[in-house]
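Hi R.,

Here's the input for the copper (II) ion complex you asked about:
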Amino acid sequence: MTATRKMTTRAIARADNENRGGNLDHDRDSRPRSVVQDTSVIPWKGTAMTTRIATVIIALALAATLAGGPAMIYAAAPEKVPVEFKVRVSEKGFLDEKGTLYSAKHVLTVPKDAVVTITFLLGEDLTSLAVGDTHQIAVKSEDGWKQETGSIWIMNRESSLTFRTSENGRVQYRAYCILDCIGMEHLTNLIIQVAAT
Ligand SMILES: [Cu+2]
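And here is the predicted structure with copper (II) ion in place:
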C-alpha cells in the first residue's frame, strides 16, 4: 500500500513535472509568439503616428484654407465673383430668403455687369397640396433672351440659372413659371432689376 502510495506520489510528481515542463515548453513556445505580438504593436504604434501626422496635415491644411480664404477674395476681381440669389417658389408666389413675397414694389435687385446665379427652390409648405406640384422657371429679358431652369419638385428641390447681367444693355428680367401649377397666377412676374451702379 505504502509502495503504491509512493509510486502514486512519484507518478503524480512526475506528472506535475511533466506538466510544469509542458507549461515551460508552452511558455517557451509562446515567447516568440509574444515577441511577434510585440512587433505587431509597432505597426499599431505606426498607425497611431500616421493618424497623428494626418491630423497635423489636416490642421495645417485647415489653417492654410483659413489664411487663404480672404486672400483669394482679394485676388479675384469683384465683378467676376459670382453672386447667388435664392428665390423660393410657392403657390403664393416668389418669395425671398426671409419669406417675403416679391412684387412690383419688392423686386430682386442684381448687380450690374456681374455673373449672377439665381437658385429657385421649392418653397411650398409640406402641409400644402401644392407640395406635389412641379415648377419650371423661365427668366426672360426685353430683347427676347431667355433661360429656363430644370424641373423643381419634391424630388429635385432646386434648380439654378447663371448669367451675366447687363449683357446687350439688359436692365431688367422677368421670371415666371412655365408649367400649369397650383398658384401659377402668382408665379407670373418676378422682376429682376439690374442695379443702376
Ligand atoms: Cu409653377
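One thing worth noting: Confidence is low (pLDDT under 50) at residues 1-13, 15-46, 68-74.

Cheers,
M.
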